[in-house]
DNA sequence: ATTTAAATGATAGTATTACTATCTCATAAA
DNA sequence: TTTATGAGATAGTAATACTATCATTTAAAT
């Protein structure tokens, strides 16, 4: 039996659905690889076109600009992560156990998911760490938010907020603590690998230390 | 008596010291205003030159590119903030009180500091919130780090880490908790104003709520 | 199997960005 | 008064971020 995971994306993010065509899938696949390789700033549609033996104009048929493409792949990631959270907490009754699972899913490098052939989730995870916040750190964040481009991110945070409230229904800051651990799962990883003086695990460079730190932090906060 | 605050900057950040000339000061002053107005992505030396009735080439004599300029002004901010932390904790004996002061200094909008005529610290604070992390979220962060461009940021975090250890010498994650509260002081503010669903203070949009949240978080963590 | 539509390729062109170079003029320190 | 330094003016180039058009291939519908 072969299962295929299809994540329905906000249609305003693209001009033509990249999931539905060969070129579209190649755009997603190789934009992830290219952004990971050279960073989002030096990523251009021209370079991407050369990489996949297509043309710049061809890519512009799918995405208005590279920022929309970044929002597309980050949105995809958050949706996929929420899906993983749901799957992995389905049979877990204890809310504290759920929370531990969430922290692990957030802060641990993922394996490449076979049910999505053209997306390398492990590399995508690296992109989210280094480029993810650039999706919303813009002057047009308000309009983008009105178009619901950050829906998947907010949904994930809401879900984690609910788990926090399951653990302690009187906790005052479930949403802020959610966004804190989501962001820090990525930032502490980035710091660990690039600015180690900003963390306590620069020597080992072991992401399980990030998990330990976040777990301790979140349980202390809600207790 | 008139006091002037001069912050010594890493000399590799600029080609010519902007603090020493009239044009240099105008570059700093108006780049802050322009980045705040239009965002860092759409900020160009051409536009800045028009703003100050100078030329593009003139600005390139001071800064290699706009990213160096961003690192310059963010570095300046972190240095200035560390200076403020030192001043405001000088006569405070209780480490817990020091910590509260730090959180307040991090998360509260600053008043424009009269001792630095050409820098509007209040607007600079807004820039740090929206653009600050772009200074290090690059592919060249490692080389930039070798050039000590993030020294002031790391110094500030180290200082906060020391205060955390004063409060609880056995706490295991002083550096990570420092970078967490520094980043969250800004991100929670950004979320509150732009993506309120990610916080618990979107309704009030009151930055003292961010202070309350961070205080509770940090004291829970080190207890 | 044939028609028709949709997707892609090929090519061209424009405005803006991100620089570098050079030459002159103003100014202020030596 | 010399002389360095700062700043204005102008020009030019390669890359980026697009838009437009037309031909061709591929896939879907009849």
What would your notes on this structure say?
Two copies of one chain form a homodimer. Chain A is mainly alpha-helical. The first copy, chain A, is 61% helix and 0% strand. Chain A has ten helices and no strands. In chain A, helix 4 (66-89) crosses helix 6. The longest helix of chain A has 24 residues, at 66-89. Chain A is globular, with a radius of gyration of 18 Å. Chains A and B meet through helix 7, helix 8, helix 9 and helix 10 of A and helix 7, helix 8, helix 9 and helix 10 of B. Chain A binds a DNA duplex (30 and 30 nucleotides) through residues 16, 21-23, 44-46, 54-58, 60-61, 64-66.
Would you summarize the structure shown here?
Chain A is built from 10 helices and no strands.
Key descriptive features of the protein:
homodimer; 223 residues; mainly alpha; 61% helix; globular; DNA-binding
Helix/strand layout:
2 copies of one chain form a homodimer.
Chain A: H1 22-38, H2 45-51, H3 56-60, H4 66-89, H5 95-107, H6 121-131, H7 141-146, H8 151-167, H9 174-194, H10 207-222
Helix pairs in contact in A: 1-2, 1-6, 4-5, 4-6, 4-8, 5-8, 5-10, 8-9, 9-10
The structure holds a DNA duplex (30 and 30 nucleotides).
């Amino acid at each position: 039996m072969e299962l295929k995971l299809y994540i329905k994306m906000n249609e305003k993010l693209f001009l033509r659905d990249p999931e539905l065509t060969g070129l579209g899938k190649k755009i997603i696949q190789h934009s992830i690889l290219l952004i990971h390789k050279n960073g989002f700033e030096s990523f251009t549609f021209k370079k991407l076109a050369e990489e996949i033996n297509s043309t710049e104009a061809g890519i512009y048929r799918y995405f208005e600009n590279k920022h929309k493409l970044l929002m597309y792949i980050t949105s995809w990631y958050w949706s996929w992560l929420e899906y993983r959270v749901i799957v992995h907490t389905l049979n877990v009754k204890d809310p504290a156990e759920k929370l531990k699972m969430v922290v692990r899913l957030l802060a641990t490098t993922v394996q490449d998911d076979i049910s999505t052939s053209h997306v390398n989730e492990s590399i995508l995870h690296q992109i989210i760490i280094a480029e993810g916040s650039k999706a919303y750190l813009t002057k047009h964040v308000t309009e983008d938010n009105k178009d619901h481009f950050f829906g998947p991110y907010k949904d994930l945070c809401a879900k984690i907020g609910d788990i926090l409230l399951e653990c302690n229904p009187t906790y005052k800051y479930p949403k802020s603590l959610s966004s804190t651990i989501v962001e820090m799962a990525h930032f502490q990883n980035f710091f660990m690998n690039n600015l180690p003086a900003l963390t306590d695990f620069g020597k080992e460079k072991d992401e399980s230390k990030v998990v330990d730190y976040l777990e301790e932090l979140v349980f202390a906060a809600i207790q």
